[in-house]
């Protein structure tokens, strides 16, 4: 490893691996058209999501030898539970959390923080591993080995975390505003749905590329479910005009 730009190359890959999370955070933040949340609070929740990666790794370690169990069952439950707890125990109590859309925004912020650091770990380690193993520094060659993984994670896995968490985030927003009768049941349904979709997504990745056929159904379905909740949340905002929700 005699490349003097080796560390600079690694830094560039790190920044590139964080870029999808930042883009999707901007994308979902822009959906809050009535009364956008304070940017500083959203950024704080994004970094809180990053901090959840370590406890997730610890909790998932007992399942590391069982790939199917880990990715389809344990990881979805552990990760969604951690993200939910981060929102419920912190920003949920804040005075700025005052409309259903806030549940989606803050859930998405935490989810994308988590997904961004997770993405950085996978991409950077995949980029460095072959170079370290072969003691051969060639950034173009190394990135050529990970660009497919990068694209899949940038356009599927990273936004996937946001979509899954938005489902329970919307339920949390309704509960905060007392817009649902059975609050605990509504939140539980949101959490269960997010875990099920998360697990199905991982299952299809395990069987990729055949799983791509399932993705053609699952990914649009997730976007439709979240789009409907965003539309309803904006309509239910006490700060804007009221329209009929879902």
Secondary structure topology:
Elements (H helix, E strand, L loop, with lengths): L5 H24 L9 H13 L1 H8 L6 H22 L11 H35 L4 H6 L2 H30 L6 H24 L5 H24 L11
Helix pairs in contact: 1-5, 1-7, 2-5, 3-4, 4-5, 4-7, 4-8, 5-7, 7-8, 7-9, 8-9
What does this structure look like?
The structure is a single chain. The protein is 76% helix and 0% strand. Mean pLDDT is 90; it is low at 242-246. The chain has one domain (6-235). The protein has helices at residues 6-29, 39-51, 53-60, 67-88, 100-134, 139-144, 147-176, 183-206, 212-235. It is an all-alpha fold and 246 residues long. Helix 4 crosses helix 7 (147-176), helix 4 packs antiparallel against helix 8 and helix 7 (147-176) packs parallel to helix 9 (212-235).
Q: Count the beta strands.
A: 0
**In percent terms, what proportion of residues is strand?**
under 5%
Instruction: For the record, give the distance between the C-alpha atoms at the N and C termini, rounded to a whole number.
Output: 58 Å
Radius of gyration: 19 Å
Shape: globular
Please write the string of helix (H) and strand (E) elements: HHHHHHHHH
Structural domain tally: 1
Largest sheet: none
Low-confidence stretches: 242-246
The average pLDDT is: 90
Supply the number of helical segments.
Answer: 9
Helix content: over 70%
Quaternary assembly: single chain
Provide the structure class: mainly alpha
């Amino acid at each position: 490893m005699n490349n003097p730009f080796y560390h600079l190359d690694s830094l560039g890959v790190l920044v590139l691996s964080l870029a999808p999370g930042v883009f999707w955070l901007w994308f979902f933040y822009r959906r809050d058209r009535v009364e956008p949340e304070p940017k500083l609070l959203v950024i704080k929740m994004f970094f809180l999501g990053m901090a959840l990666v370590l406890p997730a790794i610890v909790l998932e370690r007992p399942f590391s030898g069982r790939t199917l169990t880990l990715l389809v069952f344990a990881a979805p439950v552990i990760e969604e539970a951690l993200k939910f707890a981060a929102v419920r125990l912190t920003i949920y109590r804040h005075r700025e959390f005052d409309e259903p859309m806030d549940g989606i925004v803050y859930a998405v912020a935490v989810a994308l923080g988590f997904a961004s650091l997770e993405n950085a770990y996978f991409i950077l380690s995949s980029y460095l591993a072959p170079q370290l193993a072969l003691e051969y520094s060639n950034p173009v060659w190394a990135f050529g080995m990970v660009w497919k993984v990068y694209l899949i994670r940038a356009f599927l896995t990273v936004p996937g975390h946001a979509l899954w968490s938005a489902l329970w985030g919307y339920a949390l927003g309704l509960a905060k505003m007392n817009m649902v009768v059975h609050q605990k049941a509504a939140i539980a349904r949101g959490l269960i749905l997010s875990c099920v979709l998360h697990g199905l997504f991982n299952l299809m990745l395990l069987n990729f590329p055949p799983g791509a056929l399932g993705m053609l159904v699952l990914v649009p379905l997730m976007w439709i479910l979240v789009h409907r909740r965003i539309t309803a949340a904006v309509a239910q905002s006490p700060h804007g005009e009221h329209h009929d929700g879902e």
